């Protein structure tokens, strides 16, 4: 079954940390650049971080220095370590391919209180 399953979200105070995980089916993951996206209430979905198949990464300016994306090519998983969280990081977080999108998963909700 072709799918993306995100987990790890929750409620955290500003300055705290969370680690998000994404389990992808092999047909979605294998050989493709992957990314984390987020959608805040009332806003469009935005790209947060990208990781190429070889491990090169890129980040939105708003999260640079605070978030770290990683992937495990043996397990078809992508992770997002989020440190020094801010209230403006509050959103539903999704993983997907970077360029050729697959069907979206359910996402995982992150709420950062001030």
Q: Could you explain how this protein is built, in words?
A:
There is one protein chain. The protein is mostly beta strands. It has 1 helix and 10 strands. It has one helix at residues 26-29, and strands at residues 4-7, 10-13, 18-24, 34-39, 46-51, 57-59, 67-72, 77-82, 91-97, 108-113. Strands 2-10-9-4-5-6 form a 6-stranded mixed sheet, with no helix packed on it. A 4-stranded antiparallel sheet has the order 1-3-8-7. A hairpin with a 4-residue loop joins strand 7 (67-72) and strand 8. The longest helix has 4 residues, at 26-29. It is globular and about 40 Å long. It starts with a strand and ends with a strand.
Write the layout of secondary structure elements.
Layout: E1 4-7, E2 10-13, E3 18-24, H1 26-29, E4 34-39, E5 46-51, E6 57-59, E7 67-72, E8 77-82, E9 91-97, E10 108-113
Gyration radius from CA atoms, angstroms: 13 Å
Q: What percent of residues adopt helix (DSSP H or I)?
A: under 10%
Structural class estimated from helices and strands: mainly beta
Note the overall shape: globular
The beta-strand count equals 10
**Largest sheet: spatial strand order:** 2-10-9-4-5-6
Strand content: over 45%
First-to-last CA distance: 40 Å
């Amino acid at each position: 079954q072709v799918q993306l399953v995100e987990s790890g979200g929750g409620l955290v105070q500003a300055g705290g940390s969370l680690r998000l995980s994404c389990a992808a089916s092999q047909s979605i993951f294998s050989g493709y650049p992957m990314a984390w996206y987020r959608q805040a209430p009332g806003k469009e979905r935005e790209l947060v971080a990208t990781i190429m198949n070889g491990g090169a990464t890129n980040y939105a300016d708003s999260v640079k220095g605070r978030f770290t994306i990683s992937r495990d090519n043996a397990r078809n998983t992508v992770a997002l370590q989020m440190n020094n969280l801010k209230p403006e990081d509050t959103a539903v977080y999704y993983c997907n391919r970077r360029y050729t999108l697959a069907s979206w998963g359910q996402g995982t909700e992150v709420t950062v209180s001030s």
